[in-house]
Amino acid sequence: MGFTFNRKSSAEFRRELRNNPTAPEHRLWQALRGEQLGVKFRRQHNMGSYIVDFYCAEARLVIEVDGDSHYTDTEARQYDSDRDAYLAELGLQVVRVTNQDVIDNLPGVLQHIAITLQSKDC
To answer: Closest by alpha carbon to 120, among 52, 44, 60?
Structure first.
């Protein structure tokens, strides 16, 4: 299925996102990289016209790290809803975690991701 691809037109933007992650994204990446949970994750990966924070192709799993605006701004909530619906149409599961959870409770976030991976037989 050719839905997961990295558009050349967004390559520079993806590179910028990888090189300048938020503190929570950086912290989570340090825990996901190198198959530490038993599967490979990619970061800042295109899914159609969207760029997701983390993606595991084997599990068809997207991890999004959300700041406060994702929960308070009506426009941001609608964008996230549309994006999640698009990703679901592709057969992908989206797990959203907050910046605060990554900073304050990284072990809990990783446990949630690990349980999700186990439910997918990964």
So the answer is: 60
